[in-house]
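N-formylglutamate amidohydrolase
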Amino acid sequence: MLKLSIDQIVSKINNEETFHAVSNDYSFTIKIDAYTYYVCAAVHDGHQFRKELWSTCLHSEYERWYEEDPSTKQMIQNHPIVIAGCDSRFEYDLNRAPESAIYEDAWGKKLWSKPLTSSVKSISLQKHDNFYKVVHALISKIESKHGAAIVYDIHSYNWKRWDREVPVINIGTTNIDQIKYASFAKSWCSMLSQIWFSDKIKTTSAINDTFKGNGYFLKYISKCFTNTLVLATEFSKVYCDELEYVVFPEVVSAIERGLFQKIPEHAKTFYSKFIG
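Predicted structure tokens:
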């Protein structure tokens, strides 16, 4: 894996080069093995937390991990194009607009013991901006090359905090073009229900049940690109014990295998129908 500046990453994308890289500030990774018509993303996979923030943060490491999306990059790691955050959403949230990307409080608890200085915030917001410069270059390249693109925006959520039965997988679609893309969201939902997790987990999937797809990543791409569909896909944390801070690697691997089959299959159907 290369360590590259944002300009170098964008240049490689513009020149249609294949590469594996980490940004020179270590805030995200990107790998491109082929310029396919689909992209996989795990914007909340990161757990890094800048050391200068440790003494000011009122949330424990476990509390941060609980609200992050651990192992989501692993679930998609073998696909041709993967972009993933390295930093915790508690430093800045890639799935929020810049003006709200740095939390004042998080899930009902004050985050900082004292206000962050503008200089401290600017470091985080620059990383946020850098990520979206690369996203923009990437989707521009894919759309220009193929005429359309589909992005699988992979997240997770804590199912035990809900006081009702919730789906194992939720797809949020309220901010996609329903006329153009609703059928692809429905077919994605159906395909995901076929993934085997374990003998103890019955796979269920639904659209707009627990989350509606209101993230900035989806909104940004949808606003900037008319022929790109983003499918915000949330896996409930049945792949870990969210209360005990334990990940079940065999379940993560089962999801990874399932997505390795289902994503290319679904993406091919999207591309052939949309372009054809």
